[in-house]
Amino acid sequence: MSRIALLAEEVASQVAAGEVVERPASVIKELVENSIDAEATRIEVLVRRGGISYMRVVDNGVGMDRDDALLCLERHATSKIRTGHDLAAIATLGFRGEALPSIASVSRFRLATREREALAGSEVIVSGGKIESVRDGGDAPGTQIEVRSLFYNLPARRKFLRTENTEASHVEHQLHLQAIGHPRVGFVFIKDDRVVYQLPPTNSLRERIRDLCGGAFATELLEVPEFVGEGIEVRGFIGKAGMSRSSRQQQLVFLNGRAVENNTLSFALREGYHTALMKGQHPVTFLFIQMDPAAVDVNVHPAKREVRFRDAANVREAVAEAVRRTIETDRAQWTQTFRASPGAAIEPLIPTQPFQASLPIPQSAQVSLRHDWASQPLPPPVRAVEALAATPALPPAPMAPAAPQEAIAAGEFRILGVLGKLYLLMENASGLVLVDQHAAHERILFEEMRRRMEEQGVPSQRLLIPLTMQVTPRDADWLLRHLEVLERAGIALEPFGSCTFKIDTLPTFLRASDPSQLVRDIIDDLRDTSTQTSKLRLGEEMIAKTVCRHAVKANDYLREPELVRLVQDLLACELPYCCPHGRPTMIQMSYGELEKKFGRKV
Ligand code: ADP
Ligand code: MG
User: Fold this and answer.
1) Is pLDDT larger for residue 234 or for residue 240?
2) Substitution site in 29, 55, 66, 78 for ligand 1 pocket (most atoms within 8 Å of beta carbon)
């Protein structure tokens, strides 16, 4: 008995729709991409109730004639590719010819379209995949698509939708991606009959980011100068060192105009930031990659979000390098603003006059004015940091107070005091500066140790009893290829059978209770960094892990000369504004921000 039957076209469309149309945001994505492919310069998106009840996308693109308006609703009908050969180099956002029939099969759908030169347009109404009417219509040139009652004929699917608010936020995120990806297109977004934004077309990505995300946010970004690698160009904007998010929501990467997600890219960004990014956090990026469409496969998933690179290593190198250079340039600029003439830059400030409060302080309030923090009995000085930061004891800094009212030159700091035995308070020309003394010390030690490692190699120690460790065949392969690098970093391993290694030597500063676990961690951390950088990274990674234990603790009491020294050393660092784990070391709170907080300025 034969059991196979061809599915009815309608059912087949619904099956296909399952892959393309997951929620209202996927409809918006497909419709907006079609408008962009149709060369629209203005796209208006309107959603009601998170898009579940109603969505409309109106564009001023090329439009369609009557035949195309009907054909576009057939499955596998597309104007964007013709042959299998075209699949190898896709230059448009769409190419599968699946979106419109899929959407029309799971909603009440209306298409009105008119070509620019045509006298009249066409209107097609479809319900659950069945064409209900076709007639003349379509007023302005361009295309308008309305989608009502999504999944009305697929109750199981409808149940999977979240609340209207959640669906609306997915729609917004999707539009955000499209708007950033295509600054030359003007966007209008209307939600529940309220205009959320109107973005004018622009040639400047920075302007688009400012219009969409706000000016304050845009100033936190660094421009990535165009980086040209082999068959690849990288540009855009990225967050400054220390700026990060706990999710990937703002890690945007566009490949030939398409927002994409790809592990290679995530690793490359991370690698580019290296210690300028907090562990476990994600960077903020608006990165644009242009490459030959033939070097990348976008036909991996129906939603076209994932891509596969033909030469992933090349892409990784280019992206990591573009990011690294940007962070480095910013460091140079930062240094110029902050680093003053050595020595004179940081002056401690001990007010001679008691603080004159202009507000009467009520007797009951326990307010004490600790303007004389420097003359307090001193707790024992900070433990010398185990020869690593062998800081020669400084002669006590002259205690001559600086006149507090004296203006501060650009690049100068004046130490005001220490807050909570942790935060160093300073004043500079722009306002208040806070330094996390622990993070700052970590950064100083990190760079100091890295310098030593580069100069002298890592001091290492033979284990009294060599340890053997078992690894997986993949890890064994990695280890065999990196024996020399590991040895330079102070870890001597000897192959001992196919998947067994003998650990002979470890760096002296590493006091690992379980050396084989440590080696495993190192493999895990480093496998994903590219081979070119791994040599340096290997050592850095280990150093970063250890400095934390050596740095001054939050509660260690630093004397004034030590504070001055700390700030001086920090400013002399290569990457002063964040600790080796990417946390900020220094925060500037400008007069502008203070004025806002005190309501002097809106
Ligand atoms: P694809 O985009 O993969 O080609 P779609 O189902 O999304 O498939 O669209 C089918 C075809 O309909 C497109 O190839 C295009 O020719 C036409 N089309 C869709 N939307 C528009 C639009 N907004 N303006 C002009 N033509 C459009
Ligand atoms: Mg499409």
Assistant:
1) 234
2) 78
Task: Point out the least confidently predicted range of 66-75, 176-185, 496-505, 572-581.
Answer: 572-581
The answer to whether position 131 is within a domain reads yes
Nearest CA to ligand 1 atom 17: 72
Which residue is closest in CA terms to ligand 1's atom 20?
A: 34
* 268/274 Cα distance (integer angstroms): 10
Which ligand 1 atom minimizes the distance to the CA of 142?
24
Q: Mutate which of 72, 96, 124 to test ligand 1's pocket (most atoms within 8 Å of Cβ)?
A: 72
Identify whether residues 247 and 332 lie together within a single domain.
yes
Would you say residue 111 lies in a domain?
Answer: yes
Domain boundary among 338, 366, 388: 338
Residue 486 to residue 265: CA distance in whole angstroms: 26
- The strand pair at 586-590 and 285-291 is best described as unpaired
Query: What is the rounded CA–CA span in Å between residue 446 and residue 73?
Result: 61
Tens digit of each residue's pLDDT (9 = 90 or more) over 272-322: 888 788 767 889 999 999 999 999 998 888 777 889 999 999 999 999 999
Number of domains in the chain: 3
**Pocket, ligand 1, Cβ cutoff 6 A:** 30, 34-35, 38, 59, 61-64, 72, 77-80, 94-100, 143
Q: Token pair 């900020």 is at which residue?
A: 584
Q: Which of 179, 204, 229 is the last residue of a domain?
A: 204
Whole-angstrom distance, CA of residue 87 vs CA of residue 76: 13
Pair (419, 284) in one structural domain: no
- Band (pLDDT 50/70/90 cuts) for residue 167 is very high
Q: Are 22 and 100 within one domain?
A: yes
* 60 and 199 share one domain: yes
Q: How far is the CA of 38 from the centre of ligand 1 (A)?
A: 8
Question: Among 20, 30, 100, 258, which is best to mutate for testing ligand 1, by the most ligand atoms less than 8 A from CB?
Answer: 100
Regarding whether 256 and 139 lie in a shared domain, the answer is no
Q: What is the CATH number of the domain that holds 65?
A: 3.30.565.10
Three-state secondary structure along 60-98? CCCCCCHHHHHHCCCCCCCCCCCCHHHHHCCCCCCCCCC
363 confidence band (pLDDT: 50, 70, 90): very low
Asked whether residue 468 is domain-assigned, the answer is no
Q: How far is the CA of 233 from the centre of ligand 2 (A)?
A: 26
Domain limits for position 362: 347-375+410-459+509-602
pLDDT higher than 50, residue 198: yes
Please give the pLDDT value at position 557.
76
| 256 Cα to the center of ligand 1, angstroms | 19
Give CA angle at 496 (495, 497), nearest 5°.
Answer: 110
The CATH number that applies at residue 574 is 3.30.1540.20
- How far, in Å, is the centroid of ligand 2 from the Cα of 230? 30
**What value does the mean pLDDT take over residues 335-357?**
44
